[in-house]
Each structure stands twice: as C-alpha cells, then as structure tokens.
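Q: Got a minute? One more chain.
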Amino acid sequence: MTEPLLMVVDDQVTMAGFVSDVAEDLGFTVQIKTSAKEFQAAYAVTKPLAVIMDIVMPDIDGNELLQWLADHDSNTPVVIMSGFDGKYVELTKMLAEERGAIIIATLVKPFSIDELETVLKEILSSLE
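A: Always. Here it is, folded:
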C-alpha cells in the first residue's frame, strides 16, 4: 500500500521538519514546501491527502493560499497553523471555510507532539 502524501507548507524549516518527522513516524510520505509558490507548483502535479500550512509566510500568506485552493475547487483537507493568537487562527479558519476550503483542524504554535499526532491520526482515519 502506498503511504499517504502530506504536504507541509511553512517558511520555517525547523517547524516543517518537526511536522514532517511526526507525520513520517505515523506512516505519511511528506513533502515540505517552504513557500506558497513552491506549494502551488507541486500541488498542480500531485494532489496530497492533506495539507498542513502556516498562515504567515513571506510571499503569499496562508489566507491567500487558502483562497487559491478554494478557487481551484480543492477538496483537500487543510490544517492551518500559526504562532499568532488563537483568535487569528480561528478567524482564518472561518474565512477559509466560507470560501469553500475544508479546514479540519487548527494548531497554535508552539503545539505538542500529542496535539499534532491527534490531528494526523484524524487524517489517517479518513482513509478507513
């Protein structure tokens, strides 16, 4: 069986690596993208099972990237994460869902391995 693909979009390489390590331990194949443009190019070719993305990035922020996904009729579940206040993350979630994005969870940095594993296991359970 092919391992499910998870794309992690975060300009902070350390955070992306942390998410990747935990996801790989649970059986995901992970692609790390450090910019929204890099993600867009990869997404056009390979549709992942899910995406975990940071909201605040330098080139195109997560809000714009969520709009891009909605504009491309994406049905890929997304987990949004940010080091900003939880209210900002929840507002982003609400706006994204109104635009048609499928937001399955939010994570406020710093988050624990247990929090991340819970979200990743939820994604895996969608395969069953």
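A: Helices lie at 13-25, 36-45, 62-71, 86-98, 113-125.
Q: Perfect, thanks.
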